[in-house]
Amino acid sequence: MNTTSTPIVPIAAAIVVPMVLGWLLRSPDQAAKEKGGKLWLEYGKLMKGMALLFAGLVALLVGLWFTVAPDDKQPVAWMVALFGLLDLPLLIEFFGVRIGFDDEQIYCHSAWRKNRVIPWGEIKSCTYSKVNKWWVIETASQGRIRIHEFISGRESFFEAMKRKTGISA
To answer: Of 96, 137, 103, 135, whose CA–CA distance to 119 is shortest?
Structure first.
């Protein structure tokens, strides 16, 4: 067995990971989609597909668990738990979060908290979190609205927010 390691994998990862992240950042559509008289911000097919791909990986690992030797079951179970716990928030966010808006109100639908209808006049400020890669919109009485870089339609929302409130993203 060759014990010398080559730097090919770390070098490839250092090149591929930034390229994939850049591609994901460019993937959101710029315009919000109109449905039922409202414009909607939603995660696109690419983001949802990525979450489903990881869920498929978890399913494959579960299937693998049934075929491995008894001594290998525990490491496979740990991988199932790890990837499952990493993918669960992606599935919740990408499939459970959407933000709608019209001339009067903002409609926040989230799997993380109860749905809210927020009048434009409730918006007090908008800041950007570099760490989390999302905009945080503070409201007077209904908490925060978070708009992630990966969600489609955010530019349409920010234009409407500027028009309705004078607050820029």
So the answer is: 103
| Segments of 24-159 assigned E as strands | 33-35, 38-43, 98-101, 105-109, 116-119, 123-129, 134-139, 144-148, 151-152
C-alpha span between 94 and 36 (Å, rounded): 21
Cα 159 to chain center, whole Å? Answer: 21
Q: How high is the mean pLDDT in each 10-residue block of the chain (169 residues)?
A: 61 71 63 89 88 91 91 91 93 95 95 94 96 95 94 93 93
CATH topology of domain 30-165: PH-domain like (2.30.29)
Candidates 24, 163, 17; CA nearest to 102 is 163
Distance CA 167, CA 90 (A): 29
- State the pTM of this model: 0.76
